[in-house]
């Protein structure tokens, strides 16, 4: 059975204006990648139809880091729980976290700050095929932003 996956964001304007009867498609891997990115950048309670959708890393956004290893462990657990709950197409998840301080320059206000940059690597298998796959995301904390 062939499943169709759609690229996000959906570009409905071209669908209605260009006599286009198809929305842009993507592969299974791209669909999983898009969904994980959405999970990571959604705060639980934000999604109107599923208040459990999202990742609790938002609760750690402005948290002071007293123990880097404990913070990374908690961060990993939140991600693993969220992906397991909201991305059922992946199995055998392994989460790797690398946190470091980076200089962040705001061009609008002409200020420079030090922010936490967290690289998130998610490894797993696609349940249907058993294929190994991996995804990498970069997040800046306080306030949360993606790269």
From TrEMBL:
The lineage of its organism: Bacteria, Pseudomonadati, Bacteroidota, Bacteroidia, Marinilabiliales. Gene3D superfamilies: 3.10.450.40. This is IraD/Gp25-like domain-containing protein. InterPro entries: IraD/Gp25-like. Residues 27-102 form the IraD/Gp25-like domain.
